[in-house]
Design brief:
Largest sheet: none
Shape: extended
Strand content: under 5%
Order of helices and strands: HH
Distance between the termini: 31 Å
Radius of gyration: 14 Å
Helix content: 25-40%
Length: 44
């Protein structure tokens, strides 16, 4: 799935699984988030 397809097929989630998210998955997500654009180009 590419980004455009993901955006076009997004859906709201009203319930969540109880399975814990592995630590390495969370760390990877946070590493990627550090490279995203910030609101108002605020540099931190």
């Amino acid at each position: 799935m590419d980004l455009i397809e993901a955006i076009c097929n997004k859906r709201s989630v009203r319930s969540f699984k109880t399975n814990p998210v592995p630590k390495n998955v969370l760390e990877n997500i946070l590493d990627i988030c550090a490279w995203t654009a910030s609101a108002g180009n605020v540099q931190q």
